């Protein structure tokens, strides 16, 4: 069995970027202020990588966050990125709120589309709670907005193709029919 079968796109891309730019795990660890063993664990899929750490990596490699998250496969060099190295929860919260309102959705309807709690959306929007990498990616994929735009990596609103995901309950219905 190929070990890469069990890795997520994020884990594969952070390793491939490190190798592409010819960094050692030690060098990346030093730049990020973490241990080399944590880099190794991320790359092998044994430890989760936080959104804050992914943002730091995107800044080091000068690649869009959307690329590392697997939202895009090709980097558009016509978009100007800032490559921020830290996350401002208030900024992100305002952008999530702006996105939700532009879609004409209440927090409750927005949360239902994401299969999460309204209270989580409320906390994200006021910058009171750290958003998970998975939740940010789901917002981007569900509503077609760029993670780079939401975090402030670019001032350009970037619309991404929405992914049509099948929910677990729909899969069960398909299997039983």
What would you say this structure looks like, in words?
- The chain has 177 residues and is an all-alpha fold.
- 56% of the residues lie in helices and 0% in strands.
- The protein has helices at residues 9-20, 25-32, 36-44, 51-61, 65-69, 89-102, 107-114, 118-125, 133-143, 147-151, 168-176.
* Residue-averaged pLDDT: 90
Query: Could you give the count of β-strands?
Result: 0
User: Which runs of at least 5 residues are low in confidence (pLDDT < 50)?
Assistant: none
Describe the global form.
globular
Share of helical residues: 55-70%
Instruction: Give me the strand/helix succession.
Output: HHHHHHHHHHH
Major sheet size, sense and barrel closure: none
End-to-end separation in angstroms reads 32 Å
Helix count from the secondary structure assignment? 11
Instruction: State Rg.
Output: 17 Å
User: Structural class given helices, strands, pairing?
Assistant: mainly alpha
> Percent of residues in beta strands?
under 5%
């Amino acid at each position: 069995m190929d070990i890469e079968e069990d890795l997520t796109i994020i884990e594969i891309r952070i390793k491939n970027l490190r190798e592409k730019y010819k960094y050692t795990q030690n060098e990346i660890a030093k730049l990020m202020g973490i241990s080399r063993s944590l880099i190794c664990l991320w790359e092998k899929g044994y430890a989760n990588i936080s959104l804050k750490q992914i943002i730091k990596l995107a800044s080091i490699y000068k690649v869009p966050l959307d690329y590392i998250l697997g939202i895009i496969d090709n980097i558009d060099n016509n978009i100007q990125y800032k490559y921020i190295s830290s996350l401002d929860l208030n900024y992100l919260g305002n952008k999530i709120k702006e996105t939700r309102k532009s879609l004409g959705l209440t927090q409750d309807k927005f949360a239902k589309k994401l299969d999460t709690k309204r209270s989580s959306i409320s906390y994200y929007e006021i910058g009171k709670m750290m958003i998970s990498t998975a939740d940010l990616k789901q917002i981007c994929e569900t509503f077609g907005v760029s993670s780079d735009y939401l975090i402030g990596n670019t001032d350009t609103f970037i619309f991404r193709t929405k992914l049509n995901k099948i929910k677990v309950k729909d899969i069960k219905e398909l299997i039983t029919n």
